[in-house]
Amino acid sequence: MEITSNLSEKAQYDYELVLQAITGDQKAYAELLGRYRDAIYFMLLKMVNNPSDAEDLTIEAFGKAFKNIAQYTPNYAFSTWLFKIATNNCIDFIRKKKLNNISLDQTSNHEDSVPMSIPTDSLDPEENLINQQKIVLLRAIVAKLKPRYRKLIELRYFYEYSYEEISENLELPIGTVKAQLFRARELLYNILKNSSHKI
């Protein structure tokens, strides 16, 4: 383990979890998520000042990190890598929000500020396969939720419905949709966290 001699004990343990996760060990993914979920969430909450957006961005950050986990190298701590992904993703989110309020003419002078978010839409076949595997795993976990929570998670994350569309679809007030989605995400995280203790 000479490569990791520059890492703290905590970071070395993270690296062992990463190696297990790369082999497909779902308990390792769950433990990594449990170790950093709150820290990532509160950091993002400070950036966007909106609990609902912070929750969505937390899930996205872990999704991106886990999708690209094989690219992590122990030159620096896993937490550093994860926070960088979360921060960059959040900056993209804030930039896109601002772009929606600015005409395209105004952005034409800033060549380096726009194209970053464009290429991410197209996935190569390998990424597609990894995504499909993650979706299968997520669906299996979501299936453990109560029907009303399961439906909310499916509409929001599998079908990418907006809060308004979910509200119409389920005939619920938007406030209720957001509150129940928050609860559903908490339940999901708890299922993941508990699974990390099983052998």
Q: What is the mean predicted local confidence, pLDDT?
A: 77
Top CATH class of the largest domain = Mainly Alpha
- Domains, number: 2
β content, as a range? under 5%
Q: Provide a count of the helices.
A: 9
Looking at the structure, the CATH topology of the largest domain is Rna Polymerase Sigma Factor, Chain: A
The biggest sheet, with number of strands, parallel, antiparallel or mixed sense and barrel status, is: none
The helix content is over 70%
Order of helices and strands: HHHHHHHHH
Low-confidence stretches: 103-122
* Second CATH tier, the architecture of the largest domain: Orthogonal Bundle
Description:
The chain has 199 residues and is mainly alpha-helical. It contains 9 helices and no strands. It is globular and about 55 Å long. It starts with 8 loop residues before the first helix and ends with a helix. The relative contact order is 0.10. Residues 103-122 have low confidence and may be disordered.
Write a compact overview of the structure shown.
By secondary structure, the protein is mainly α. Helix content is 70%, strand content 0%. The chain folds into two domains: 1-122, Rna Polymerase Sigma Factor, Chain: A (Orthogonal Bundle), CATH 1.10.1740.10; 123-199, Winged helix-like DNA-binding domain superfamily/Winged helix DNA-binding domain (Arc Repressor Mutant, subunit A, Orthogonal Bundle), CATH 1.10.10.10.
